[in-house]
Amino acid sequence: NAGVTQTPKFRILKIGQSMTLQCTQDMNHNYMYWYRQDPGMGLKLIYYSVGAGITDKGEVPNGYNVSRSTTEDFPLRLELAAPSQTSVYFCASSYRSGRSDTQYFGPGTRLTVL
Amino acid sequence: DAKTTQPPSMDCAEGRAANLPCNHSTISGNEYVYWYRQIHSQGPQYIIHGLKNNETNEMASLIITEDRKSSTLILPHATLRDTAVYYCIVRDPNSGGSNYKLTFGKGTLLTVNP
Q1: Which of A7, B55, B88, B114 has the most beta carbons within 10 angstroms of its beta carbon?
Q2: B98: which chain A residues are within 8 Å (Cβ-Cβ)?
Q3: Which secondary-structure segment (H or E) carries B90?
Q4: Is the pLDDT of residue B100 over 80?
Q5: Does residue B109 carry a pLDDT above 90?
């Protein structure tokens, strides 16, 4: 299993540009998440999905959109990039059961908006 | 999720056991203890979790006190690659809504020295 994979690893955007961060998991997990981590700070949840076709906002959703058309994929879309979106973005997935909701993380995408 | 307290930093000699403590005195009966770590600039990595019994896997052992108010993560033979920030998280796997997100505190920076 590759686990959770993310592309690209690095990206530099100009203000106002758009891009999609890709996330794929091959563990057949029902839940998927997008977090951002600013330098020296903790993780903040952007969006999450409890299954294909179902998404919901986390604590910092403004400026982002997501979709979940398949179990495996959970892309994150930035429509109008702003300097405040400079961050490291982590995708995670989990199989939630009554005894566990262990989240497994991807390697991250480091985004700089200039 | 219950609050946790960890020392900000610890040192360990390579090849020795690293014992990382965590206090979670307000833990409730449904909450599990999870340990993650984050090596600089990488995605958080799941290590181990448990409810009340001690647990062991290929990475580490988790010792939970009988009253469940504290726990210790043990890396039996620390290597230089184990240098990372280690996070102790207490959560109920059945929680929903805003509790889907993992809340990482400040954690313990473990430095393994040659």
Answers
A1: B88
A2: 58-59
A3: strand B84-91
A4: no
A5: yes
Q: How far is CA B36 from the centre of its chain?
A: 6
* CA distances, A43 to each of A36, A85, A91, B43, B72 (Å): 6, 14, 11, 10, 23
User: What are the φ/ψ torsions at residue A28 (nearest 5 degrees)?
Assistant: 60, 35
Neighbours of B28 (CB within 10 A): 11
Which amino acid does the sequence have at B96?
G
User: Residue B1's pLDDT is what?
Assistant: 60
Q: How far is B88 from chain A (nearest CA, A)?
A: 13
d(CA B43, CA B37): 9
Query: What single string gives the DSSP state of each residue in A17-69?
Result: --EEEEEEE-S--SEEEEEEE-TT--EEEEEEEEETTEEEE-S--TTEEE--S
Amino acid letter for position B2: A
Interface of B with A (CB under 8 A): 32, 34, 41-46, 49, 51, 91, 93-94, 98, 100-105
pLDDT at A76 over 80: yes
**Is A102 in contact with B49 (Cβ distance < 8 A)?**
yes
Structure tokens at A14: 């100009």
- Give the minimum alpha-carbon distance from A73 to chain B in angstroms, rounded to a whole number: 18
Distance between CA A32 and CA A24 in Å, rounded?
A: 9
Contact (CB, 8 A) for A18 and A77: yes
Cβ-based neighbour number of residue A40 at 10 Å: 5
